[in-house]
Amino acid sequence: MRLGWGAPTMPGMSSDEPRPFQIRSLGLSVYLPTFLFAVGQGALIPILPLYATDLGASVAIASLIVALRNYGTMFFDVPAGLMVSRFGERGAMVIGTVALCIVAVGAAQTRSLAVIAVLVFIMGGAWSIWTLARLAYVSEVAPLEQRGRAMSLLGGTNRIGNFVGPFIGGVAAVAWGLESAFYIQAVLAVAASVTMFLLMSGGEGKAEVHDTSVYRRISGVLQENTRIFATAGTAMMAVQALRAARQVLIPLWGARIGLDPAEIGAIVGLSFAIDMTLFYPVGIVMDRWGRKWAAVPSLVIMAVGTMLIPVTDSLTGLLLVAMIGGFGNGLGAGLVMTLGADFSPPTARGEFLGVWRLISDVGSAGGPTLISALAATLTLGAASVATGGLGLAGAAIMYCMVAEPLQKRPRPG
């Protein structure tokens, strides 16, 4: 097993023997680059729709351009997994970083909405490649009994970066213009990539299947893991759908009950602040008692919080419900990545993780789509209840049909 730098040599252990894995060995090689990359992402996220409208886009077109980033991520999930298997984590990361820099600089220079739309779609693909390379690396180096903490720290670091990034992007936009956020993303992506490239140990996690066609490799992964994708994958799709739905339902319901944008922003911010505080304790829970101890409560609490949104009629009520949802979301920190790492086969890890992320990303895109459809045909309250019901169904599937991966851990003696 490949190990990250920084783990000390144990007494009596020769220098050429494998050193035991320690999570702190990923501090500089994984978590610092993750933070830098996430800050760059966060700097752009609130600026992108403003940049589109500044170029003359309507609100609907600006929303579509933002959505194209998510669809680009979905479209490139499986190709990104293939790149990781073909070129290794380092090679895939370099490809993703180069693509992201070209796209970011191009988006900052162009004044065409059509070009922006294409570049944002590709940007989502570059994010997917970089994320898959990082996930595949941690999946390989972190042993099963420490993987929950390693992945929850990865997810938590990403959330902190996304929290810090918008402040930097906003200040830069005021000082140097909206296009500066694209340059910030490019610079931080390069810094993250160089740091990870230089400090990650090995980084050659290539699959030994290069003589097999892409179709056979993907179809083989699908056939061998059909039950996992149908059960655990469906549950993770529900997790992602609930997460995305919160970002739509809370602002829309807040506006419906008469809250102003500042009040809505405060509610959303406090909700996300809660889930940022839970990622490491959740990792301990997943490693000590099992993944389902985090997954099932996370789904149930998020679902209940979502279903309670329509019964609120004041700032205080919506804030309490949003904080319930934030707590549930925090219980699932790193969950999707941990289960993907647990179930991924060593000989086709890239392909598996590509399909796994595609399934979960369908939930991210499908949550807001479901809300839109139900709100148009029924009511926003009905959409909220139905989305919560989807989460409860995911919890039932996770509890009843998914085997606990931690039971694979070897027992002492």
Fold and architecture overview:
The longest helix has 51 residues, at 59-109. This protein is mainly alpha-helical and 413 residues long. The model is unreliable at 1-15 and 408-413 (pLDDT under 50). Helix 4 (113-141) packs across helix 13. It is 78% helix and 0% strand. It folds into two domains: 20-201, MFS general substrate transporter like domains (Growth Hormone, Chain: A); 213-413, Growth Hormone, Chain: A (Up-down Bundle), CATH 1.20.1250.20.
How does the SSE layout of this entry go?
Blueprint: H1 27-44, H2 47-54, H3 59-109, H4 113-141, H5 144-176, H6 180-199, H7 214-224, H8 226-256, H9 261-276, H10 279-288, H11 292-308, H12 315-331, H13 335-343, H14 349-377, H15 380-401
Helix pairs in contact: 1-5, 1-6, 2-3, 3-4, 3-6, 3-14, 4-13, 4-14, 5-10, 5-13, 8-9, 8-11, 8-12, 8-13, 8-14, 8-15, 9-12, 11-12, 11-15, 14-15
Our estimate of the beta-strand percent is: under 5%
Distance between the termini: 22 Å
Order of helices and strands: HHHHHHHHHHHHHHH
Shape, please? globular
Number of helices: 15
User: CATH first level of the largest domain: which class?
Assistant: Mainly Alpha
* Name of the CATH homologous superfamily of the largest domain: MFS general substrate transporter like domains
Low-pLDDT runs of 5+ residues are 1-15, 408-413
Main β-sheet description: none
Helix content estimate? over 70%
Please count the beta strands (DSSP E, at least 2 residues each).
0
Number of domains: 2
The CATH architecture of the largest domain can be given as Up-down Bundle
Average of pLDDT: 84
* CATH topology term of the largest domain: Growth Hormone, Chain: A
Q: What structural class results from the helix and strand content?
A: mainly alpha
Radius of gyration: 21 Å
